[in-house]
Amino acid sequence: MSYLALYRKMRPKNFDQLVGQEHIVKTLRNQIKSDRISHAYLFCGTRGTGKTSAAKIFAKAVNCFEPDDGQPCGKCDLCQRIDNGSDMNVIEIDAASNNSVDNIRDIRDEVKYPPAEGKFKVYIIDEVHMLSSGAFNALLKTLEEPPAHVIFILATTDPQKIPATIHSRCQRFDFKRISVLQICDTLKKYMKNENISVADDAIGYIAGVADGSMRDALSIIDQCIAFYFGEAITLDKVIEVCGGVDLSVFFDMTNALFEQNGEKCMEIIENIVANGRDVTQFVNDLITHFRNVIVSLAVSDNSTALGFSEENAQKYREEGVKVDKSFLLGLINDFSALQGRIKYSSNPRVVFEVECIKICNPVGGENIEQLKAEIRSIQKKIEQGVFSPRVSVETEKSRSDKIFDGSSAEFVPKPKPKAIPEDIKTVLGQWRSFTEVFKIADRTFLLKVKPKFLEDKFYIVCSAKAQFDRVSRIKTDIEEQLSIKYGKTFNIFVIMEKDFDIKCGEFDMTGVQMDFDIEDEINSKIGADIIWDD
To answer: Domains in the chain, start-ordered, CATH in brackets?
Structure first.
């Protein structure tokens, strides 16, 4: 006999073997025992959750010559014929390829004939949502009032596409996704029966990749067994077959993103692609990794929500302590949106790299996550004692600018005097050269704004909202750089041009000196050889 795929070989033969659908099993068995069998059922659920298996078991149970407590015996001729697909009373139809009106008319013509053997003729229509509108209409009357010897079981992965007229004529059963723990327990039992050695962490990884589908899990492990025939199946081997990556890579990527280390992110992506891994699958796994870190902090050790080993749970908790939770939530949002873009991209790697660069190097805009990333970067610099990476100060000079605090045995910065109007005027005259300490993106904005002096205050006047937002965001940096360059404390006010004009008018009405032509004033005091910005 030719080889039988593992998911077909391990297909449940009775209700007790159906995994993760106890609520449906109990209802169907009670209907059989009490002889309250309906004429039409609608089985809904994602792939690989047992819809077709449950339909076949139900078909055996209602026709079995010697049922036991609502279960098929599995030994009589009728049960065995249904198991091997040779029974004429159980008709399986694939609606994806038989979706026309003529196909349904054939069913209507056939249902009038009673079963050759057994009580019921059972029609199992798989992927019923693929039927055409005309086919659904042709099925309506037969589905509502079929002959007493006919049972319809409609299976679908997309119940939203089922017309309400069909829906209302059926008893609906929703099949749940099978939990990771249930898949793990089932796979261990199957592998023991097959006398195949599979590591627990390998089974756990397969259960996670299967995403609630027992059929997917069996297909993956079947492929692993074929690839490493005669060998013990380890986690690394499963990852190799699935095109996944080792768990440590996800921790490395998370840390690189949190530390805004774009170079490290690019190295990780390069290694992933070089090893033939699928970028789309890596992004999916990365989102799951972020989720696992958050969940490990939120639930107890014995919670079923963990879905992974205690050893991995401890690693996730350590990562959760290191990385801010709000940052992880932001990453989940960013990479979930990235999933949609990658799906329709001809070059997923580029899209993924750009997203990582954006996270590591926040740019202008109103994205709250980018603002949070900038705040985290500033906080990190403060914690490390690095207040301005753009300015290099020798150790001895740095110490000379500090005073000794005996209570803490530390050198603390000397308080700097506040800038006076003459200092502000000097800054205005040297504004262009001062902006050179900023990165090009910030300097572009600072060269477009107008520094002004009014009422002994230092204003940065912005003509556009984008300028105002950008300068407001780097205001602290500007004050810090001014303090370093001129040895004085500056207090800057960022203002829109229209608001500054109003302030000038109010200042003039009080009889106090109005805003003057700052270029002429400074030229007369510090020299006329100044190149002014437009």
So the answer is: 6-174 (3.40.50.300), 180-242 (1.10.8.60), 247-360 (1.20.272.10), 421-526 (3.30.300.180)
